[in-house]
């Protein structure tokens, strides 16, 4: 287990390094000039050149990368070229919206997908099983923006139960208002991601039903459903844990779109604004933080899966 952990940790570090290089180089090929943006439309070439010199934008790219990555090792993701604020401080502030949104979305996806996926597998060939399978396929194909707009129309416009947009100024000092503002965005992401996860749960459950140990348990006196619940669902759970690591990436991508749609002051909306403003140091710090988070989640999922699955330990 120690050797496996060290190997996965080395791959995590390598993945972060490759991601940092790709992020740095990709942002440098974007059109536009940050010095021109800071100086304004009426600036002279001399003023633009002075700003580029002050910000170090004229230095060779390898030197800029080394300076940036050295700061990352010190816990400094850089500062905004436009406002001078620390990227770490802004990420900490915006995460108070994005992190609860992600946790709530993931909880909704799990609560919807696991029981409905198992039920659709156990009712395969019946009307309810077919209806659940068709619904999951349809919802998985729905664009997240369209799903969000439909939920706004139903729950905010027609019923008036939840706010359509915004986040309370007091933040989590008013927990109920903050939670209500996140319910519709979380439902939007949770339903779409849950539909995709439900299809996988159904497939994993059908595969578990055909395993020898489930059939043996049924032959010893357990009903088919009891054998599946007692012996098959733990195997399904191991498979679901693996997929949840991929779902986290989907939730982050969904949060970028949903925060803009619902006017939530989170990391996703901040990232979109900073890309439009060509605030390169801030954007690359945000992208590296999000990439690192996804890689760390995958690392943890791998370790948990190996710790819970005796077959992997025996194979090693």
What key phrases describe this protein's structure?
13 helices; 79% helix; 2 domains; MetI-like fold
Question: What does this protein look like?
Answer:
With 316 residues, the protein is mainly α. The chain folds into 2 domains: 23-76, no CATH class; 91-315, MetI-like (MetI-like fold, Orthogonal Bundle). Helix content is 79%, strand content 0%. The protein has helices spanning 2-28, 34-39, 45-55, 61-73, 87-122, 127-140, 144-158, 175-209, 212-219, 224-261, 267-277, 280-308, 310-315. Helix 8 (175-209) packs across helix 10 (224-261). The model has no long low-confidence stretch (mean pLDDT 84).
* Broad structural category: mainly alpha
Average pLDDT value? 84
Helix and strand element order: HHHHHHHHHHHHH
What's the alpha carbon Rg, rounded to whole Å?
Answer: 24 Å
How far do the termini sit from each other? 9 Å
Strand content: under 5%
Number of domains: 2
The number of helical elements comes to: 13
Low-confidence stretches at least 5 residues in length (pLDDT < 50)? Answer: none
User: Mind summarizing the main beta sheet?
Assistant: none
**What would CATH call the architecture of the largest domain?**
Orthogonal Bundle
Which word captures the global form? globular
CATH class of the largest domain: Mainly Alpha
CATH topology of the largest domain: MetI-like fold
Number of strands: 0
The helicity comes to over 70%
CATH superfamily name of the largest domain?
Answer: MetI-like
């Amino acid at each position: 287990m120690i050797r496996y952990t060290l190997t996965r940790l080395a791959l995590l570090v390598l993945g972060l390094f490759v991601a940092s290089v790709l992020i740095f180089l990709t942002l440098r090929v974007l059109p536009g000039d940050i010095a021109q943006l800071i100086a304004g439309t009426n600036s002279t070439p001399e003023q633009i050149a002075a700003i580029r010199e002050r910000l170090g934008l004229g230095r060779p790219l390898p030197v800029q990368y080394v300076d940036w990555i050295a700061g990352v090792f010190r816990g400094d993701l850089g500062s905004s070229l436009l406002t001078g604020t620390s990227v770490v401080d802004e990420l900490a502030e915006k995460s108070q919206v994005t992190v609860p949104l992600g946790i709530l979305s993931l909880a909704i996806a799990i609560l919807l997908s696991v029981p409905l996926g198992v039920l659709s597998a156990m009712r395969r060939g019946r009307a309810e099983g077919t209806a659940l399978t068709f619904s999951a396929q349809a919802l998985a194909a729905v664009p997240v923006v369209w799903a969000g707009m439909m939920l706004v129309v139903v729950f905010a416009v027609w019923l008036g139960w939840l706010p359509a947009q915004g986040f309370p100024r007091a933040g989590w000092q008013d927990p109920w208002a903050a939670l209500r503002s996140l319910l519709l965005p979380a439902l939007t992401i949770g339903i779409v991601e849950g539909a995709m996860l439900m299809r996988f749960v159904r497939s994993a459950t059908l595969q578990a039903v055909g395993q020898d140990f489930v059939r043996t348990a049924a032959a010893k006196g357990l009903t088919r459903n009891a054998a599946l619940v007692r012996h098959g669902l733990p195997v399904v759970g191991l498979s679901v844990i693996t997929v949840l690591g991929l779902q986290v990436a989907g939730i982050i991508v969904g949060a970028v779109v949903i925060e803009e749609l619902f006017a939530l002051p989170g990391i996703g909306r901040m990232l979109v604004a900073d890309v439009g403003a060509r605030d390169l140091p801030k954007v690359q710090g945000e992208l590296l933080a999000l990439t690192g988070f996804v890689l760390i989640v995958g690392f943890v999922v791998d370790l948990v899966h190996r710790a819970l699955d005796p077959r992997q330990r025996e194979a090693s």
